Amino acid sequence: MTDDTDLNRAARALSRARAVLVLTGAGISAESGIPTFRGAGGLWEGFRAEELATPQAFAADPARVWRWYRWRQAQYGECEPNPGHAVIAQMEGAYERFLLATQNVDGLHHRAGNREMVEVHGTITRTRCSRCQRLSDWPEAIEEGEDPVPRCGSCEGLMRPHILWFGERYWTGTLERAYEFAHEADVCLVVGTSAQVWAPAQMALLAQQQGAFLIDVNPGATDISFSADVHLMGPAGELLPELWERAQRSPQEP
Ligand code: OAD
Question: Is the pLDDT of residue 252 over 80?
Answer without folding.
Answer: no
